[in-house]
Amino acid sequence: MAPAKKRNVSSQPNAKRAKIDLEGIVERLLKSRKHANDVFDILEFLQSEKEKDVICAVNACCKLFCTLLERNDLFIGKLPEEDEALNGGRSAEEKYKIFMRHRYNSCVEIMLEHLNHETHEVKESALCCLMKFAAEQGQHPLEDLDWSEHFSFPRELIHAVVQTLLSQTSDNSLLISRFQEFLEMEDVRYYVMSAIRENVATVMDKNKGAVLPVYQSNVFTLMSNINMPSQDSELTNFMVKQEAKHEDWKAAKLLDHKRAFERMWLGFLKYKLPNSMYKKVLVILHDSILPHMSKPTLMIDFLTAAYDVGGAISLLALNGLFVLIHQHNLEYPDFYKKLYNLLEPSVFHVKYRARFFHLANLFLSSSHLPVYLVAAFAKRLARLALTAPPTALLIVLPFIYNLIRRHPSCRVLIHKPSAEDELLEDPYLMEEEDPALCRALESSLWEIKTLQKHYHPDVAKAAMLINKPLPEQEDDLNEVLEMTAYELMERDLKLSQSKSVPLEFEAATHLLKGGGEVLGQHFCLV
Amino acid sequence: MGKKAPKKRNLADKVRKTKTAAEIKNNPFEVKINRKKFDVLGRKSKHDVGLPGVSRSKAINKRKETLLKEYRQKNRSNKFIDRRLGEYDAKMAPEDKILLRFTIERQRVHEKRDVYNLNEEEELTHYGQSLAEMEKFNDAVGSDDESEEKGLLSAELTASHFGGGGGLLRKKTSGGDQLDEQSSQRTRSRQELIEELIQKSKQEKRERQVQKEEAQELTEKLDQDWKSIQALMVKKTPKAEHEDKPEEKPKPEEYDMMVRELGFEMKAQPSEKMKTPEELAREEKERLQKLEADRLRRMMGDEGGDSVQSHAHVSADDLNDGFLLDKHDKKTLSYQDGKWNIAEESEGDKEEEAESGEEDAGAEEANEEEDEDSEEEEEDTSEDEDGHSDLESEQESENEESEREGEARRPPSLSREELMARQEAAKAELPYTFTAPESYEDLKGLLHGHSPDNQRLILARTQKCNHPSLAAGNKLKLQKLVGFLMEYLGELATRSPPELSAVDKLIPELYALCQMFPEAACKSMQSILGDAAHSMEEVIEVKGLAAFPTLDMLVYLKVTALLFPTSDFRHPVTTPALLYISQALTKCPVRSLQDLTSGLALCCLAVEYVSFSKRFLPELINFLSGTLRLAVQDKASAGCVVVPPFRPSGKHSDLLVLSSAESCRSWSETKLPLVSTQQLELNSDLDRDHYRLNCLSTCLDLVKRCCLLYKDLTSFTHIFQPIRTLLSKHLSRQNLPGPLQELHREILEAISSAPVTHTRLVFDKKKPIPLKLFTPKIVEILDYGKKRGCTREEREKERLKHKYKKEFKGALREIRKDARFLAREKLNEVMNRDEERKRKVKMLLGSLATQEGEWKALKRKKRK
């Protein structure tokens, strides 16, 4: 009873006893209402400095209030003020319920605060506890309504949890990934999605659309953790069961889920995003967002805006655009012109190189493209290949060959016997942005001729192919798309075993000598 | 040889004998002509004419001799054996047999008579020859024709001796005798004749003995003479001379010995001519040309004739233990200078032997070492320099031959005195034998605390002591040593401060080891490169960028270029190394002057790697243009394209911008220390500016080299476009110090002088497909008929199979014939028996009938 005594107990050596005590208190509280005031001790522990105590208290609270909710020992309906209720003429039973309901509310508040605790264990146990409350509350709603007409779901509690999860100050990705487990439940997911939408709208409006990196990354983490079901029949896992009219419940319908999902994403993407977030969104856009939207065409604005940004973001937007063009009849004027202008030296160095070339290969696989366009692409890629690393070259060269194979009229790029003896300067205009005007068809792929002298044997061999008519069969790009420099190197490292190793016959005498002495000319040992 | 047995007579001969061969062959009823289908030119056919009757009779007779006998003997336990002398000897004529039997009979009678005749001297014989005589023959010289003579003798003897009975066989020896005999033939009895014969033969024998002794004496004399002149003509006696005298018969042992001696005698051969310096130079040139051609072939990537090894100082039948290598090197060294002569060389060899002996004996022979010290010293310097000095000389000659060898090497004599002096000091403490290190820790312990020169000496000696030719396990040990040494080099480079001079000293040793064990060196270098690339890849996967390689990797890359040819189209070590360099140049961002120094060192390495093959390395150009861009002050106006790892703007994009223009004046070019890739301390702004200018000058020089390297590429202008705009528009010449202005100008000239026009691309001209030729394809057919297997084993198998089949058929046929023959014989037997029985019954009946008749007649008589 006496708080003073309890404070003594909570000292370090008695931590274990505290736990036992807490369990005892919970038991006592549940046994008889006489000990109702002991609940303060638990709440005090809940606010303690020590993580262990806090975790113990969280568990105790969880047990206590879950049982109380189950027993309907909490006041239902609009909660009167505590003092007023205690003084007023109510029955002892009612007074007890009101008292306990107040304690429950304060407990939930503390728990929500704990979601921003420094230690992960506390956060996690608080989150679990809150979700258990939510589950119990769903079964035994605290609102006094006609449940035959309404769907019972602890919306406020979920909203509060989501709000705390989407912190503006700390990165909650760990906790959010823990929260994903609860998102497996259909109703929770549904209400979380709507909660996110509302939360994003209010927060971003309050900040007048400014970029909030931490908050937005939290939102993104939470949203990308949502796994949407693909069929109605998959909706089986509910936290709260509605006895009647379960069929009518929005949370039980896939279409509503999709709508909520779509609104949530659109609401999020409406605001300005930091660059890294842009990329992250675009990376997952085509396979985890677009398929789950009810109207994917709503993404057109976002994607065209992203495509116009330039650089890596444009490359990534390609994927989403492709899905829209391919499956949703999107008409995109000057698509190829923009694609052409995306080709820059950095294309060969970015992380998304494989994805880009895969898509570019798809876009250019149409046989209805005009010859000038294909020639322009081939020529530009060849020109850019002069700065590319070998792994990229092993993609680009087959890529160009495939283009020429698909469009035999492009063969003049590598074979123009009619003007064999004519000496000419390269007529191709690298700076021209319009592929129709860049005069690629008048040029030849001298760059590939240059690459025949490339230092890497595989590249040189690939470049040698233009000396002869290309074989009919198209090269399969998928093998080389993901190849890394180390894999390329391993080929040579493994190759050696069979044959004898040629050696340098010029004897080595000094570290810096030999090989033209370039190193020796510019560097000294000390 | 004379005693060859007369050809075995078989039944066929007997059969043929009955009629003469000609008679049979001419009898058209005997001859069957086998019809030939085709006449094949040049083929001899054995079986065009057959004599079926003859061969049948032959076969039947043979069966009678063998099968029939067996059949008759069947189920019989007793057997009749004819023990008469020579009964089964088909070789003997019946007359001979009779003669022999007669002799034996006579002898028996004689023996019986002599049983009691104790005192009479009797000659003991063996095979009819006197034992006493045979004993005398023992010491006779056995020669090839001896047996022949003997055989003749015995044949004659037997013929004359025992042939007395048969007057037909008597030989008419001489005319005089003939008369004599004719007159006295009847008077003399047989006894007398034989005695006469014996006398004659004894006389002959004696004569022969005398002759033999004379011959022996003569041979002995000849031997003596031979020995006296043998010494004079040791070398040039051809074998034939001896074979000319088969008559002379030295004692068997001596002769054998002599023959062997002669066989093993070293034949003096014309000694090799001393080569003139011109010849040597020419040889060296040829060798280098061959190596060069080889290198070019590999550069083009021909995989075809790869049998030729690049290290040509290893002969074709080298055991890969590197032993010959040393010898060879030494020889060229001794001849190269011209002053060295054979005596000196042999001295050197002796010394080496002595040294190796000492090595075996270990430290006990320290005193001896002291005695030989001076010599040793000489030897040692040349020894440990041998990698050095002869290589030096090689290079010198190479300088003469190849123009691309730009700079003269360090003259060897310069450091020799120093080395000598140092080794004097070191000699006192360094032992001569080292065990090969078993682990990396061992190697570290071995080299710990020694000066770089001593470390090198230690390694050289370890290598010598554990030469593969000395013991079985040494090869493996040294192979391991290669890996340890590589690791050690890396460690030296990672120490702080890096001990690069030690690395420098160890390079020749590593090179020598690598020449011995290319596989081991290749493998360890590969693992180093693989590990480094792998770790870099991991970092890149996480961060997208990586840090520049550390100093040890730079050292490894340089060592790779020293040990392995960088110009090969594909090489198991250099190709990955180049890939590593390019990866580092694209993925490592330049964040400080140290990074820049590393990058420039990598660029230098890259230029070295491709300097000979002139291969295109895009990353190199990218990095150099990025570096130049770092020196541009106004980044915004320099709108040219930036290739990663450089960024268009950022806090590290002004690394090479000078803080004050004044520093240009006080700047003079110095070499960049390799150490500064790891740590760089620049205190004042002036120092920093000077360092920047150094970097810039290096960069410009590399650009110039690249321009020269790549000027033949078709896209040269496009490759150097960014550099050209940078240099001409943004990095004006006025702000640079003098030497850099010069470089600046040269580069721009080189770029602008390159041809901009090119012919269009066309496919290679197709080789015309040759018309089908109708000349017959000639295939060697070894045996006609069915197609035989291709390999020797298959053919052999086919042959055996065929033979087996033939034999099997033959055997089957024979068995059938046997059965038929037996059946016939049985039938014959039965018929004979029946006939006999019938005859007997008839006879009995006849006798009974007579009896009956007689009895009836008697009865009738009585009645009457």
Automatic annotation (TrEMBL), chain A:
Annotated membrane topology: Multi-pass membrane protein
Cellular compartments annotated: Nucleus membrane
GO cellular component, one term: nuclear membrane
InterPro entries: ARM-type_fold, CCAAT-binding_factor, Noc4
Residue ranges the record marks as coiled coil: none
Keyword Transmembrane helix: yes
Domain CCAAT-binding factor: 314-463
Annotated Pfam families: CBF
Superkingdom, natural source: Eukaryota
Transmembrane segments: 302-325, 356-377, 384-404
Keyword Zinc: no
Alphabetical UniProt keywords: Membrane, Transmembrane, Transmembrane helix
BP GO annotations: ribosome biogenesis
Similarity field: Belongs to the CBF/MAK21 family.
Protein name (database record): Nucleolar complex associated 4 homolog
TrEMBL record, chain B:
Biological process according to GO: maturation of SSU-rRNA
Keyword Nucleus found: yes
Listed GO CC annotations: Noc4p-Nop14p complex; small-subunit processome
Amino acid composition bias (Basic and acidic residues), ranges on this chain: 189-226, 238-301, 405-416
Keywords: Nucleus, Ribosome biogenesis, rRNA processing
Annotated stretches, region: Disordered: 137-314, 331-416
Bias type Acidic residues, positions: 344-404
Keyword GTP-binding belongs to the record: no
Major subcellular location class: nucleus
Location relative to the cell: Nucleus, Nucleolus
One Pfam family hit: Nop14
Known role: Involved in nucleolar processing of pre-18S ribosomal RNA. Has a role in the nuclear export of 40S pre-ribosomal subunit to the cytoplasm.
Annotated family: Belongs to the NOP14 family.
Protein name according to UniProt: NOP14 nucleolar protein homolog (yeast)
